[in-house]
Amino acid sequence: MQPSERDNKSKDAVIDIHGRIEALDQNLRSLEHRLRAVEKRLSIKTPGTRLVGGQDIEDQGEDDVHIEIEKLRTSVKESQKSVDEIRTEGRKLNEIEQKLAGLEKTLDEKDNRIKKLENQNKITIGKIKVPIELSGLVAAIVLITTGYLISSGSWEIIRSSYYAIAIGILFGAVVLVKFIMTNRQ
To answer: Dihedral, CA atoms, 77, 79, 83, 89, nearest 10 degrees?
Structure first.
């Protein structure tokens, strides 16, 4: 996943959360207005109540008000649950963003390390980077030296065990130098 794709998904999630928060805020404002209306109804007393079916009209209004208050309370509880869910999602989103930042940092470190390893066996001649293999270079030098010794007629040097031991030590040193260069950083 590219960093721009992660950023877009993260922005979309943040926009979604903000939209939910705005909707809940609007819902709460609506509930507040309804509660104020109920309070106004309760504070207004009508003079001269009459009896309808053995119950005062004022008592029926109070029952309606209590029902309305219960509805409002359930709405507030539902809104509170939604707010809690959004907060939980926000925390999860923050944790995911932190994990992504850590992964991105690790990925950058690995990328830098790979670039260093790729450029390690290259020398720069002007603006051109030329790959160089140390063991190949040493082998070429050994072959040129051997060819020179053969052409000059120095077969005793080539046949001697010291020549073979010297070549073995030289190749061992090359391997050791490459190992040190690879692991120095």
So the answer is: 100
158 contacts 149 by C-beta, under 8 angstroms? yes
> Are 56 and 49 within 8 A, CB to CB?
yes
Same structural domain, 24 and 75 = yes
From 95, 120, 145, the end of a domain falls on: 120
The pLDDT assigned to 55 comes to 47
- Same domain? For 115 and 142 the reply is no
Beta strand 128-131 with 122-125 is antiparallel
179 is in which domain, residue-wise? 123-183
Q: Does this model's pTM top 0.85?
A: no
155: which strand partners? Answer: none
- Together in a domain, 116 and 136: no
Answer yes or no: do 103 and 74 share one domain: yes
Cβ atoms of residues 46 and 58 within 8 Å? yes
Q: Are residues 86 and 130 in the same domain?
A: no
> Is the Cβ–Cβ distance between 93 and 13 less than 8 Å?
yes
Considering 17-31, 47-61, 134-148, the range whose residues carry the highest mean pLDDT is 134-148
Assess whether pLDDT exceeds 50 at residue 28. Answer: yes
